[in-house]
Design goal:
This protein has 503 residues and is mostly helical. The protein has two domains: 143 residues, no CATH class; 333 residues, Neurolysin, domain 3, CATH 1.10.1370.30. The chain is 62% helix and 3% strand. The chain contains 20 helices and three strands. Strands 1-3-2 form a three-stranded mixed beta sheet, sandwiched between helices. α12 crosses α13. The N and C termini lie far apart (56 Å).
């Protein structure tokens, strides 16, 4: 079948060459997924070496003279369409990095981050930061080296934010947090003073059957329209999504015996990621445009499903009938109880379990720590104390151990420095999508109460966002869909309206 999106002959040649790079990325992703799901623990060394060699090959194929020539030649073309320009934008960014970074660096980075994830998992399970610190120190040192190799104008952290949100800088993220801090503090103070405020809901202490919780997660996924021929769910120590194309996306979740929302919202969050990967234009498969490469867009979609859909009253109404299967004690709770439980606002230690307001302080803390680590102002051995200090400053609490503190996230062990800000920015963006959806097809609270409503919601997301895959960068995508530049106005209005009603 003829591809109607890529017509330029040079771009066609570029994409033909790119298939080898795509294949290596695919196999690397598959090996990474297996390492976190099924691989025996002692397989990590061999897997790391294979990952390093594959990463090295990707760079070598990128730097192939003919491939570089074709990319440069395509850059001179005057009449590229929007799809072809999208391909070129992504490949030029990658090529620029590969031309600067030594191949030995790429090989070492792949091996050390592969090893880092295994060490982190053991360290977290044993609550032992000292076991993790040496490998984290090596990862941070390589991040600092990368900043110098790539180059930056204002802050070495710019290089790492750019990896996840092309064109975004440390200054941009600073300005973003400055724009929302006041609203966060004001809303939190309002809630704390409310007569309806409770720091903890009794549902968070209810023990559940893991088997029944798994059934509930699958029931919700079926309701949301998960296509089991193209999608699967497993269990991991930290929920994640791995996309391989429009016909193969895998997510993971976790189970903790109690506080069922932790498992449910993680599952729905990852489902949001999976839809974006599955629903880009089918002809984008095997090209750089398949799936999403803007992490802020990606997180806006996962956080949309996690917060705006799964924390709505309409959704609480839907899951009420299945909730009683979790255990005898659940039969006494009403839809209203579930809704209040899902929307409790209370400072907690764990980022992924945080409410819609305190969540942003978790991200701000990580952003501040990452900046200091990359600049060399904060040493890895001092990280736990710095972490605890910021948690006390922003949330008034302090972890009693490492696993609920500095070891809770997998990101640093995988070298994902610069990822965290996109969670908060994506969350703010999700409310822009909400406003547009409600203007076009009606109240989300009503839509989530029926399968037909969910289908309308999904169709809107697919037609307005998902189908474009990685065609546009963050700024252009927001402007295309909303007709405005990214801002936090919708998000502030959403929080004020929702929580002034609840509290």
């Amino acid at each position: 079948m003829k591809n109607i999106y890529f017509k330029n002959e040079i771009i066609k040649k570029v994409l033909e060459k790119y298939k080898v790079i795509w294949s290596l990325h695919y196999l690397n992703g598959l090996a990474g997924w297996d390492a976190r799901i099924y691989m025996p623990k002692k397989g990590i060394i061999a897997r790391g070496k294979a990952h390093a060699q594959a990463s090295k090959l990707i760079q070598q194929f990128f730097l192939d003279k003919e491939f570089v020539y074709l990319i440069n030649k395509a850059s001179e073309e005057k009449n590229l369409n929007v799809y072809e320009k999208g391909v070129l934008r992504i490949l030029r960014k990658d090529l620029d990095q590969y031309q600067k970074i030594p191949i030995k660096f790429t090989e070492k980075w792949a091996e050390i981050t592969n090893k880092g994830q295994s060490i982190w998992e053991n360290a977290k399970n044993n609550d032992d930061f000292k076991f993790f610190a040496p490998i984290l120190g090596k990862i941070i040192k390589m991040c600092q080296e990368k900043s110098e190799i790539i180059g930056y104008k204002s802050h070495p952290y710019d290089v790492h934010i750019d990896d996840f949100e092309h064109g975004m800088t440390t200054y941009d993220v600073d300005m973003y947090f400055n724009s929302i801090k006041g609203s966060l503090i004001k809303t939190l103070a309002y809630i704390n003073k409310s007569k309806k405020y409770i720091p903890k809901h009794i549902l968070s202490s209810e023990i559940y059957s893991k088997h029944e919780m798994n059934n509930l997660n699958n029931s919700v996924l079926d309701y949301l329209g998960a296509d089991r021929d193209r999608f699967r769910m497993d269990i991991s120590s930290h929920p994640f999504t791995q996309g391989f194309g429009p016909n193969d996306v895998r997510i993971t979740t976790w189970y903790h015996d109690k506080d069922f929302a932790s498992s449910l919202t993680a599952t729905i969050h990852e489902f949001g990621h999976s839809l974006y990967e599955l629903e880009s234009i089918a002809d984008f498969e095997f090209t750089p445009l398949s799936g999403g490469n803007s992490l802020s867009i990606h997180e806006s979609l996962s956080r949309f499903w996690e917060n705006i859909v799964a924390r709505s009253y309409g959704f609480a109404k839907f899951i009420h009938k299945d909730l009683i299967k979790l255990g005898e004690n659940y039969k006494k709770y009403s839809t209203s109880d579930i809704y209040k439980y899902l929307n409790i606002v209370s400072p907690g230690l764990i980022r992924v379990d945080a409410d819609e307001i305190t969540y942003h302080f978790h991200i701000l803390i990580r952003f501040e720590l990452e900046k200091e680590l990359i600049k060399g102002k904060l040493k890895v051995n001092d990280l736990p104390d710095a972490w605890n200090t910021l948690y006390k400053k922003y949330l008034g609490i302090k972890p009693l151990n490492y696993k609920d503190g500095v070891l809770q996230d997998i990101h640093w062990s995988a070298g994902l420095i610069g990822y965290f800000p996109t969670y908060s920015i994506g969350t703010a963006l999700s409310s822009i999508w909400m406003d547009l959806i409600e203007k076009d097809i009606g109240s989300i609270n009503k839509l989530v109460e029926s399968k037909s409503g969910i289908n309308k919601l999904r169709n809107w997301l697919q037609n307005n966002i998902h189908k474009y895959g990685s065609m546009y960068d963050f700024k252009d995508m927001v402007k295309k869909v909303s007709k405005n530049s990214f801002n936090t106005t919708s998000w502030k209005k959403y929080l004020k309206k929702k929580y002034s009603t609840i509290y």
